[in-house]
Amino acid sequence: MNDDTVTVMSALPVVLLLTSLVPALLIFALREKQTVLRTTLNLAGAIAKVVLVIVLIPRVVAGEELRAEFTWIPGLDIVFVTDTFSLFFVALSAGLWLATTIYAVGYLEGSPNRSRFFGFFSLCVTATVGIALAGNLLTFLIFFELLTLVTYPLVAHRGTRAALRGARIYLAYTLGGGVALLLGVAWLTLEVGPVEFRAGGIPEVAEFAARDPLTATVIGAVLLLGVGVKAALFPLHGWLPIAMVAPAPVSALLHAVAVVKAGAFGIIRIVEDVFGLALFAELGMLQALAVVASVTIVYGSVRALAQDDLKKRLAYSTVSQVSYIALGAALLSPIATAGAIVHMVNQGFMKITLFFCAGLFAEELKLSKVSQLAGVGRRMPVTSAAFTIAALGMIGLPPFAGFISKWALGLGGLDAGQPWVIAVLLTSTVLNAAYFLPIIATIWTSPRSESEGSDEGTFPAPARRSGWEAPASLLLPAVATALFVILFGVAAGWDYSPWVLAQIVGEGAWP
Amino acid sequence: MAVMWALSFVVPLLVAATIAALSLGAGEARTRARELVVQYAWLAVVPTGIVASLDDGALKTVDWMLFGTAIRLDEVGRPLVLLAVILYGIALAFVPRSISERPAGLNGFLLLCFTANVGVFVAANLVTFYLVFAAMSFLGYAIVVHDRTTSARRAGAVYLVMTVFGESAVLGAFLLIASEGVTDVLDVPAAVAASDARDVIVALLIIGFGVKAGTIPLHVWLPLAHPAAPSPASAVLSGVMLKAGIIGLLRFLPLGEGAAEPLWGGLLVTLALVGGLLAAVVGVLHDNPKVILAYSSIGQMGFITALIGAALLEPAIAPAAIAAAVVYSVAHGLIKGALFFSIQVWDLSRAPTWAVVVPQTVAALGLAGAPLTAGFIAKYVSKESLGDVALPGLPVVALADLLPWFAVGSTVLLARFAIAMSRRSRRRTAGKPISTTAWAVLALAAAAPVWWLATGFAPPLTVPGWFSPGPVVDQSWPFLLGIALALAAAALARRPRFRDARLLHPRGDIVPEGDVVVLLERATGGTMRGVIRASGVLGATRDALVERVRRGPSPMPTVSGVQARLGTWVVSGALAVAALAGALLFVVLAGGGG
């Protein structure tokens, strides 16, 4: 924590939670047909949250910290804090939630059970914001488990066999992780008492680790295991490719906004704000995490290469890309820390764009396989362009967002005296290119006739009066997030860019 | 000046964006507007031409962009930027009249490539350079595959694979350099020379930029990409884009810094010499003029690489060798560009045949290094810049004495090019007099700017007098020898005995274009299949393991048994009472302290 941080008691953190909790509860009460009211509530909540965050960013950057706390049971406090890192995550999820809400409204137009869907949808974001604002492990745990429970109905939304199976496996994995997290939190609280997150590590935890390094290591491992499931670390990633049966907006939520990100956020919180990087390195955990992350990076990419189903390929890509965050958190270097933090945003915007586009291809042309995409660039040029931008960003090419993360992680690896990180990054670059570039080439350069299972030479023309290639509510969010992928790369040096903010957040972990 | 630079980057991008926007949706007005923009797209290079002529050489930075973007126009970059302006300008003017479909798309991508390509020549720090280098490389894919034919897409695939490997190597090298705490390109050579990872960095740089510069064996994409791309695009591809690899080597290799590099210098020079030989031998076996020119480019780029390798061998000659490499790059760019353009002029222009053949011949003579041409000056200054540097294992032969043999190869290739061109029929359908004139001026007058540029670099360069007998004699023998070889081959080919000799009547089927590319394709295909199979095995193994864990002893029966017993209200009531009692006890015991 910086010395010049001023802590102010405020209701604002709670208001941040309420901006999605209140719409969620109201939407549950709505009848299915009250579409306009439901959409208004959704958008009002999403916009309110974004506005609040934008107002808060300069204050928090200036060193102000808002705090709200309640005593649940004596000794067990619920604490919400807007430190730089929590606000960073709230900003990410608020921004992407707004885009996803618009997309989901268009995507689910006319389909059944929308009140249920949007209710849980808002709850999901509430849980994510709770995770972000949590000031201690208990609060973190509560919202982490809540997130598991409220995403289950979303994954199972379609109610088909595959959807139910995917949701069941999702629940099995994440509840298992939840149990590990509960165990870890309870054990640590038993040893050091209720303690709050603290940038650079909690002093009590450091004392305890000096006293009993073995137990501290085991607790650290159990905690990482708990959050590692959501972060899809190998070998705990199994749920992610199966859960892609969910509708596209839910995939976006799982992969970019909430679930996977909560896991990655949890890893950074535990490494940096519970144990502290130095202590974690001393216990040998940092090296272990770096190895697991590197294995996951390569494993995810290799698996992605063999998938013909577009969403499945994207899912394995997420497995790989999210571990960039874990890898950055596991390197003893300030620039790697900042790289990990900024990749939360960059991966979020790139992957959400890709899932939006995959959803657009599926909705508009009923195409879900890579081998079917031949010639789509002609029929849906805007969607294809957005897809191309995000995919090139994933490979890590400048000037797109992904390059910023990759450059920072590479420099961080060298700075931390771990030059093998460069080899991992370059391998991942080549593999990412190997599974994304063929898609791009197919979309733009292959004639339609090469597509699997197509008889006709052209696609049906868009059947809407505007002449647009797809419904605006689906197309515009994809375009917007793609533009941010460019912007976050090109304008990385701007005062409030994710990269600059990530450096500020990362500095905290380096007292 | 900063505003001018901003304009020179923004204007081409804006024009490209306008073309893209006008391509969305139909409508006659839209189509007409787009045609107009495409036709005058060449004007978008004018701001760059102006600013590159007037610039003061100071550093210009844009701090909010990426990790801080910076450009600087130095004496290496300025001539190359002007080269880019000329070639891209003519290419953009040629496209609307070419046989290519979708000229709008081609011009749009050419404009994007132009911006990135100019950026490569002026980038002043590592990240800026990587940005524009990567952008140019990947945008290049779009112009290679523009025609969407099977061969274009194959060329594109090979191009992409090579580009990805090149980019990765460059990125690795740049990360290692950046971790030395260097950002400005001017500080890089010294930092590399002093780095512990010096050999790794140099190796990565040679691989990364060697792909772009067509250094063998990384040249395989070149003979596929040049014929696949539309002619105007081939002209900039060969004339300007390949030079991005050269400037990469010039800017980042430790030239003139630290000790000599016998290993890397020797390697570069050897590869260059083999490349020159290969280019001539394989090139003459083809009958597609663009393939022949592509092989010629491999040989010519080898010539420049040899200069850079020599500078690694002998740091003292670095300033002269760098200057010579720049002069040679400009000379090659102007002439090779003119030759690629000449294919379209020959095919489509209404100009009389002599008006096409004369400039074409002058350009060809220039490439061969005949006296009074651009190539004459470039070859002479290069040879002189080398002093008495020799290959490490071969001290008797000075490198300067090997260089003229490149010209022999060039001459033979160009003779082959002339034969291939003479067999093409002329359609004479289109061609604006203005762009055709611009092309003719480029082909006829290339010597003037090259001479002027070389003079600007003297010293360290030694510029030959136009008619001084020494240089003229020195430079004439390779050219004459090449002509003699070509004539001998032609004489043999005319003999009835050899009417069916494939070697003397090559159709390009003895060694396919891209020569060893087949090996690369097999290797890449094999690796991809291997990885995909490994991926499948990984997945199956994982699923099997998960299944075994699932099938293993499960706690569920025991749990449900216990649950069933607990379910009776007597037992659960008893448990509840016990739990309450325990809690009370705890409170009583612990309460004493609280």
UniProtKB/TrEMBL annotation, chain A:
**Domain of life the protein comes from:** Bacteria
Q: Which Pfam families match?
A: Proton_antipo_M (PF00361)
Q: What is its main location?
A: membrane
Q: Where is it located? A: Cell membrane; Membrane
Q: Domain NADH:quinone oxidoreductase/Mrp antiporter transmembrane spans what residues?
A: 134-431
Q: Which UniProt keywords apply?
A: Cell membrane, Membrane, Transmembrane, Transmembrane helix
Where exactly are the transmembrane stretches of this chain?
A: 6-29, 41-62, 85-105, 117-134, 140-157, 169-190, 218-240, 252-271, 277-302, 322-342, 348-365, 386-408, 420-444, 474-494
* UniProt protein name: Multicomponent Na+:H+ antiporter subunit D
User: Which family would the database say this protein is a member of?
Assistant: Belongs to the CPA3 antiporters (TC 2.A.63) subunit D family.
Q: How does it sit in the membrane?
A: Multi-pass membrane protein
- GO cellular component terms, semicolon-separated: plasma membrane
Q: Which organism is it from?
A: Microcella putealis
From TrEMBL, chain B:
Domain NADH:quinone oxidoreductase/Mrp antiporter transmembrane, by residue range, is 123-380
Give a yes or no for keyword RNA-binding in this entry.
no
Keywords in alphabetical order:
Cell membrane, Lyase, Membrane, Oxidoreductase, Transmembrane, Transmembrane helix
- Entry's Gene Ontology cellular component terms: plasma membrane
Which membrane topology describes this protein?
Multi-pass membrane protein
Please name the Pfam families in this protein's record: Proton_antipo_M
User: What subcellular compartments does it reside in?
Assistant: Cell membrane; Membrane
Annotated Gene Ontology MF terms?
Answer: lyase activity; NADH dehydrogenase (ubiquinone) activity; oxidoreductase activity
What processes does the entry annotate via GO biological process terms? ATP synthesis coupled electron transport
| Regions that span the bilayer | 41-59, 80-99, 119-144, 156-178, 200-222, 234-252, 264-285, 292-313, 319-341, 362-382, 402-422, 434-455, 475-493, 566-590
What is this protein identified as?
Formate hydrogenlyase subunit 3/multisubunit Na+/H+ antiporter MnhD subunit
Q: What is the species listed in this Swiss-Prot or TrEMBL entry? A: Microcella alkaliphila
The organism's lineage?
Bacteria, Bacillati, Actinomycetota, Actinomycetes, Micrococcales
